[in-house]
Structure to design on (584 residues):
């Protein structure tokens, strides 16, 4: 807190407390004094203020999150803020900043005294603005508020990045599979040619490692790689529902009604069409995904309920650096 | 070899047509079946499920290979009604994805064919959904969960690798109910245990609602997602801005 205060004071001192340049006293003016344009200054300040207010309004609307027509209000606030900022800059540029073209021979460097003249020229030339510092402050205010408005939605991105969280899943040996209503799934009620979504019993459904996609395939069609042997339960196979490419929900199941003339069964991600073969351990058969869908080993308990027999064979979710060196953990 | 047989069947059917006009529906259906369906679905709906049945092998050309079709015994009036009234069947060539098309057959011919296919074996009848009984918000939840992955959240249709999920804007309530239960082409099928009839009513009610959705975000752009929205922003918005800049620049120069 104290540190923040120090920073604030330092910033204010930098902004307001700097020494102003001293102009030679008593020297005759080189540029005739210009009228200050009070009206234009007021307009510019007003516009900068309006821009700030609109940017703050964006933040407020975003934070409230309950207004009707929120989308339109957000767009309106940000748009007006940018518009007012642009108008303020136009007014400043056209009315307040003096426009003058002075053609002169470049002064030879061995006459440093003439440099003073140039400095004086520059100083007196911008005399047309009386509240220069206030204008600058207004500009900084509008720019800062607008910047804040633009980065506010980033707060919704979630917790900051921690790799360990990415490999943790709620699955462990013996945990039952439940549907979205929390009802335990029986192996006998799963049919072929359709897909089911399942979650771990008694765990958070929102976790990345939770959702499963379940399909039942005829056992003779299963062709699991050797390291995944025994992962199925009577032809029922379970994969993470989170695509290994960009993390969308794998919600498409392509299942032919008449296999001789139609495409093979496949799990497809609707975002970029990564296509996985459920009969062969979630192998990628098409699309941008770089590794197979993580598979969850299943077993059927004495009462016919489906239970996990362990954790996934690989990390769940979109791929990142080093994902292949990690194992799913609990 | 297939072509002469087909021609023969067609010729026989044509010869039989005038005489059979007053005959009963299944009989007329059988004639139509012989003319439009039997080349792939086999005589009497037995189906042709392997290439040896039609004398084709891996070395034969695609047209011959294409004569495969599923058996129709036991599919019932439900499947026949769906495939014929959507124009999915008769298929131009076996192996293509059936698409909604202009109906080749008239309504009475379809009635006759449906009756004939239903008579091939006991099977499910045409469903009678009642969408007005359904619940819109439950329908949306179910649709988002089960259907939207392929058919897109407002039923605009989409793509799966190897197939094209159709848009649902022209599907009738009965056709939606039939498709959910049958799972045409590569669509999953949903039994009454997976989606109850009441839930199906809700889904249909939602699909019907999507034809006139409530566009909270303003201009819907066909509700097909962020890509067209971005295109409009860049091409429309950006060109307006550039035009504005050029106007301002012209005024400054002038």
């Amino acid at each position: 807190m104290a540190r923040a205060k120090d920073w604030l004071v330092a910033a204010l001192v930098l902004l307001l407390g700097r020494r102003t340049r001293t102009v030679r006293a008593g020297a005759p003016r080189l540029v005739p004094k210009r009228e200050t344009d009070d009206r234009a200054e007021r307009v510019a300040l007003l516009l900068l203020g309006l821009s700030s207010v609109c940017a703050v309004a964006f933040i407020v609307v975003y934070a409230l999150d309950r207004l009707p027509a929120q989308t339109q209000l957000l767009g309106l606030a940000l748009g007006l803020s940018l518009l007012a900022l642009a108008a303020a800059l136009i007014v400043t540029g056209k009315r307040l900043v003096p426009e003058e073209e002075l053609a002169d021979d470049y002064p030879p460097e061995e006459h440093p005294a003439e440099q003073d003249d140039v400095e004086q020229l520059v100083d007196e030339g911008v005399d047309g603005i009386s509240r220069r510092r206030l204008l600058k402050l207004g500009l900084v205010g509008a720019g800062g508020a607008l910047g804040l408005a633009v980065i506010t939605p980033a707060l919704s991105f979630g917790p900051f990045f921690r790799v360990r969280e990415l490999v943790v899943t709620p699955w462990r040996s013996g945990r039952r599979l439940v549907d979205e209503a929390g009802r335990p799934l029986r192996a006998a009620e799963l049919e072929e040619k359709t897909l089911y979504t399942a979650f771990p019993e008694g765990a958070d459904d929102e976790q990345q490692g939770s959702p499963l996609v379940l399909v039942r395939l005829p056992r003779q069609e299963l062709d699991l790689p050797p390291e995944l042997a025994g992962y199925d339960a009577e032809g029922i196979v379970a994969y993470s529902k989170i695509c290994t490419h960009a993390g969308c929900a794998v919600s498409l199941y392509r299942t032919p009604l008449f296999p001789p003339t139609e495409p093979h069964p496949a799990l497809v991600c609707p975002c970029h069409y990564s296509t996985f073969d459920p009969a062969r351990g979630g192998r990628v058969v098409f699309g941008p995904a770089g590794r197979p869908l993580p598979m969850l080993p299943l077993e059927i308990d004495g009462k016919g309920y489906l239970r996990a027999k362990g954790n996934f064979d690989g990390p769940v979710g979109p791929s990142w650096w080093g994902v292949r060196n990690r194992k799913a953990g609990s | 070899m297939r072509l002469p047989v087909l021609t023969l069947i067609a010729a026989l059917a044509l010869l039989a047509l005038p005489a059979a006009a007053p005959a009963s529906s299944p009989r007329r259906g059988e004639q139509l079946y012989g003319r439009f369906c039997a080349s792939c679905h086999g005589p009497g709906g037995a189906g042709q499920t392997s290439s040896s049945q039609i004398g084709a092998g891996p070395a034969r050309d695609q047209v011959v290979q294409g004569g495969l079709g599923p058996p129709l015994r036991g599919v019932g009036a439900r499947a026949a009604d769906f495939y014929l009234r959507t124009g999915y069947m008769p298929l131009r060539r076996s192996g293509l994805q059936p698409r909604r098309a202009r109906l080749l057959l008239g309504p009475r011919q379809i009635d006759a064919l449906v009756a004939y296919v239903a008579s091939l074996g006991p099977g499910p009848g045409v469903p009678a959904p009642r969408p007005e009984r359904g619940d819109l918000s439950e329908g949306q939840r179910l649709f988002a969960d089960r259907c939207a992955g392929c058919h897109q959240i407002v039923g605009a249709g989409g793509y799966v690798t190897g197939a094209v999920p159709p848009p649902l804007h022209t599907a009738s309530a009965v056709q939606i109910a039939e498709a959910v239960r049958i799972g045409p082409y590569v669509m999953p099928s949903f039994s009454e245990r997976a989606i109850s009839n009441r839930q199906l009513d809700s889904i249909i009610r939602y699909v019907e609602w999507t034809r006139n959705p409530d566009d909270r975000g303003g201009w819907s752009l066909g509700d097909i997602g962020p890509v067209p929205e971005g295109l409009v922003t860049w091409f429309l918005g950006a060109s307006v801005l550039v035009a504005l800049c050029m106007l301002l620049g012209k005024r400054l120069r002038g």
Remarks:
- The longest helix of chain B spans residues 226-253.
- The radius of gyration of chain B is 24 Å.
- The mean pLDDT of chain B is 82.
- The interface with chain A takes residues 49-50, 66, 68-70, 94-95, 145, 148-150, 158-163, 182-191, 193-194, 216-218 of chain B (CB under 8 Å).
